[in-house]
Amino acid sequence: MLRHGLLWLSERQGIANFLRTNPLAWKFASRFVAGEEVDDAVSAALALRGADITATVDLLGESVADTADAGGARDQYLTLLDQLAAKGLEVNVSVKPTQMGLDIDASLCAANIGTIIDKAAEFSGFVRIDMESSEYTQRTLDLYRELGGSQRSHAGVVIQSALRRSAGDVEDLLAAGTRVRLCKGAYLEPPDVAFPAKADVDANFVALMERLLLEGNYPAIATHDERIITHAQRFADQHQIAPERFEFQMLYGVRRDVQQQLRTSGARVRVYIPFGRYWYPYLMRRLAERPSNVAFMVANLFRESVKRS
User: Fold this and answer.
1) Which of 263, 254, 226 is closest to 54 using CA atoms?
2) pLDDT at 217 over 80
3) CA distance 178 to 108
4) Which residues pair with 181 in a beta bridge?
5) Alpha-carbon distance 108 to 9, whole Å?
6) Predicted structure pTM score
7) Cα–Cα dist 298/300, whole Å
């Protein structure tokens, strides 16, 4: 019930407008979001490099309905790529199709993402095409498949274990040699499309993870679930899958202790760094994934209120 409520709140623009100007809300959000500017994201990536952890950077925002806004988001990514390269950081970003204009025109979206991929390729970089809600799944996979061959070598996609269709999608992507990030999914979906029970989502994640570890092209295992992480490491050891053949991905500000433990053990770790003005929907989805964070937020806001009174 709480998860559904948080996901519903993630779509309420009026609440977003209020919280964006609330310093207490931002104080909490800043645990999960690097900041609102490109420089903030680059600084966060530099800090992670100091811990021997790599990054993928995401400009927050989706469901763009204006061509100029889509072009503006594209240009911010181009600036970001230049700045990552200038600092000697690995050039690796994540891009949402609806932010690039998919709801406006598929060809516009393809052109914007293609421009970002071409720029990333100049730095031997990589662009992950993020997956949004299930209504965009097929369109996103089609978008990837329509990229030029050289572009596909610098791009990958995301598969959500919550979706019932994902096993078939993984097999198709394995056959194509596509780089896949596997996550659980953070959108409220109908039960005929997605598994309603968390146990089924987790079981599907493990099954898809094993397929990707065995046959995937440098898969990214995106989870904070320590049981699944341990299973992945044991599975890799049993099947002699070297740590260099895959990576774990985790969210900025989430389980930093586990991130460092994984690096210490020799595993590869990449952190997803979000930044930008549109942090509210992202924050609500993170809370929905881990409702215990709500108690953390309330406690911190209460302490801050007491200090200010």
Assistant:
1) 263
2) yes
3) 23
4) 158, 220
5) 30
6) 0.86
7) 5
Q: For this structure, is 225 an active site residue?
A: no
Query: What's the confidence (pLDDT) of residue 286?
Result: 65
Is 105 a residue of the active site? no
The pair of structure tokens assigned to 90 is 């690995």
Task: Show contacts of 302-309: CB within 8 Å, 24+ apart.
Answer: 304/24, 304/27, 305/24
Q: In whole angstroms, what is the distance from residue 283 CA to residue 46 CA?
A: 23
Of the pLDDT bands very low, low, confident and very high (cuts 50, 70, 90), residue 285 is low
Distance between CA 210 and CA 212 in Å, rounded? 5
CB atoms within 10 A of CB 141: 20
Of 131, 5, 15, 14, the closest CA to residue 62 belongs to: 131
Residues written for the chain: 309
Task: Please report which residue ranges of 51-197 form alpha helices under DSSP H.
Answer: 67-86, 106-122, 137-145, 149-152, 166-176
* CA distances to 1, 49, 58, 59, 282 from 279, in Å: 23, 23, 11, 9, 5
Annotated catalytic residue, options 130, 169, 270, 285 = 130
> Are residues 59 and 275 in contact, defined by beta-carbon separation less than 8 angstroms?
yes
SS3 59: strand
Structure tokens at 124: 């031997």
From the list 188, 221, 180, 228, the residue with the least C-alpha distance to 7 is 188
- DSSP-derived letter for residue 193 is T
Inter-residue contact 88 to 50 (CB < 8 Å): no
CA distance 297 to 300: 5
Q: Over the stretch 167-192, which tens digit does the pLDDT of each residue have? A: 999 999 999 999 999 999 978 899 99
Catalytic residue among 152, 179, 181, 270: 181
Assess contact for 183 and 161: CB atoms under 8 A.
Answer: yes
Report DSSP letters for 285-304, one per residue. HHHHH-THHHHHHHHHHHHH
